[in-house]
Design brief:
single chain; two-stranded antiparallel ribbon
């Protein structure tokens, strides 16, 4: 199993509400690399909002993911750099392909490009993007994936494409990225349409942040069906997940961390959760319990788990939760590996 860290890059991400900076995000990326993590991930919002939790809807600051990853490409040496995930409607596919190819060159072939359809209506309206229906946003995702798939697999040769909103006439991705192709990932809940799209155009599928092994096992039949429709061997379809992760030295420590997280959750969104319900679909508990959960997902074909060491993604308000995962699960044998 590979492990990634969801990097802090929001205004709520750091201890004591410290403002987010590129330097603080970079420090966490290096810390993850030194600890033995395999990847670091950033998400994609013009700003974040706690409106979905029934809390203050005011915009919360966020770093832009592609320029942030370009900086991290030169500030790290080994970890893979991931978008989890980009909002497809925000960038012209051809411009995104150039950005991705450049980051892949800067990082010597360490980019994984994840994409989704977008969901935060407030940011669409604020920055002049049409939110539209789920179907319309999904159509933008589909067109973007088709274009990226064609350009990434072209080897620098000319690509012609006629889509509903974008047309290419002899487009060439030059210079070519190190990886040919750059791995594409589709992020979402794993409905039939999304999995069919991933099977046709992507390396694999990612879902976050609360998932049980039993639910995930039910999706394996859908994955196999999507691959069959695409004429693809299911063994080539890669799978990753992201999970909230609260680990304690023992159960008392884990329970105490959960209670602090529940109390801090905006809008009382975790008021109905118990420690038991939280542990049922997250990567939480004692180190032994967490390792058992990891083994269960590995048996289902998951190759990587992106760790979110708090009750919100891309946040590290208690750095000791990160340390508990490293000490209790990742293990000292991976620390400082080259």
């Amino acid at each position: 199993m590979r492990f990634g860290l969801s990097l802090p890059h929001y205004g709520f991400s750091l201890p004591a509400g410290a403002p987010i900076t590129f330097e603080s995000m970079t420090a966490w990326a290096r810390r993850a690399e030194d600890a033995g993590f395999d990847s670091v991930s950033v998400s994609d919002h013009f700003f974040y909002s706690f409106r979905r939790y029934g809390a203050d809807p005011a915009p919360i600051e966020s770093l832009e993911p592609m320029t942030a990853l370009a900086g991290l490409a030169t500030a790290t040496e080994r970890v893979r750099l991931q978008t989890l995930v980009l909002c497809a409607p925000f960038r012209h596919p051809a411009v995104l392909a150039k950005m991705a190819a450049t980051i892949d060159l800067l990082s010597d072939g360490r980019l994984d490009l994840g994409l989704g359809a977008g969901w935060l209506e407030d940011e669409f309206a604020a920055f002049g993007y049409r939110f539209g229906s789920v179907g319309e946003r999904f159509a933008a995702l589909e067109e973007t994936l088709e274009i990226l798939d064609a350009l990434f697999g072209s080897g620098g040769e000319a690509v012609t494409f006629d889509g509903p909103t974008v047309s290419l006439r002899g487009a060439r991705l030059l210079p070519s990225p190190v990886q040919e192709p750059i791995p594409l990932w589709v992020g979402g809940k794993g409905g039939p349409r999304l999995l069919r799209l991933a099977a046709r155009h992507a390396a694999g599928w990612n879902m976050v942040w609360r998932i049980t092994p039993s639910w995930y096992e039910e999706r394996t039949a859908a994955i196999e069906a999507a691959c069959a429709d695409a004429g693809r061997d299911p063994s080539t379809f890669r799978r990753s997940i992201g999970l909230y992760t609260l680990i304690g030295e023992d159960e008392a420590d884990a329970r105490a961390a959960f209670e602090r997280g529940r109390a801090a959750m905006p809008g009382g969104a975790m008021d109905s959760d118990t420690y038991e319900s939280w542990c049922a679909d997250t990567l939480s508990g004692t180190p032994d319990q967490v390792r058992e959960r990891i083994d269960a997902f590995e048996r289902l074909g998951v190759e990587e788990i992106v760790v979110a060491p708090w009750v919100l993604p891309f946040a590290v308000p208690e750095p000791e939760r990160f340390d508990a995962f490293v000490d209790g699960v990742l293990g000292p044998s991976r620390a400082g590996r080259s």
